Amino acid sequence: MRFDIITLFPNFFSSPLNSGLLGKALAKQIAEVNLVNPRDFTTDKHRRVDDQTYGGGVGMLIKPEPIFAAVESLPILPRRDVIVMTPQGQNLNQQLLGELATAYEQLVVICGNYEGFDERVLHLATREVSLGDFVLTCGEIPALALINGVVRLLPGTVGKVESLKTESFEAGLLDYPQYTRPAEFRGWKVPEILLSGNHAEIAQWRRQQQIQRTRQRRPDLYQKWLRDSKG
Length: 231
Fold this sequence. Notes:
- This protein is of the alpha/beta class.
- The chain has 2 domains: about 1-150, Alpha/beta knot (3-Layer(aba) Sandwich), CATH 3.40.1280.10; about 165-230, Trp Operon Repressor, Chain A.
- It is built from 7 helices and 9 strands.
- The strands form 3 sheets. Strands 2-1-6-5-7 form a 5-stranded parallel β-sheet, with helices on both faces. Strands 3-4 form a two-stranded antiparallel ribbon. The chain has a two-stranded antiparallel ribbon with strand order 8-9.
- Strand 5, helix 3 (about 95-105) and strand 6 form a beta-alpha-beta unit.
C-alpha cells in the first residue's frame, strides 16, 4: 500500500510514522508513506500557497495551482483513490477503513489548512472524508488517523489476525469488556465467568456484553445492527 500525503507540514508526521505498530509496519515495507509539500510546486519567490477569498470573508484559502501540481507529480497506480480530508466529507468509520485497505493500492490524501481549499481542488478528489462533525486546525490530524486505521488492517501489521475480527465495529457492535491480572483491584473483581475456563459460556457472555454495551452507549449503532441482523 502506497500513501501519498499532500501536506504543508510534513514534519507533523515524523514521530507518529516512526512509532508503535505503524512504525514497524512501515519499516517492514507493509506500506510506504510519501510526503509531498505543495510549497515545492509554487512559482513565486515567497512560495505562497494561500490567498484571500473572492467575495470577501475571514481567513485565507489554499490555492488550487500548487495542490494540482503536487498531485499531478505523483505516479498513478492502477487502483488509486484521491481523498480530501474535510469536515464536509463522509465520516471515517471501520467499514470505510476496510474498503480502503482492500480495494486500493495507492491512497493520495490531501490535507487542508487555514479556511480550507479553493473549491476547484475538489475536482481532484474521488472522495471527501471527515473524522466527524467538528473542525480541527489542520487536515494532518485526520490524515494520520486514516493512515493508522488502514495500515493496521494490512496483512502483517497486527500479529494476531483474529484480534481484528473481534474488536469494536467489526461486527457492527462495540467491543466487550476485557480484563487482565490481578483478579481483584481496589474492590473491582473480574467477572467470575471469565475465570471459569468454559469457553462456550465465555463467548456467549462476551456476545451479550457487546449487545448490551452497544445498546446503552451507541443506540444508533445498535439500531443499525438490529436492521442488518434481520437482513
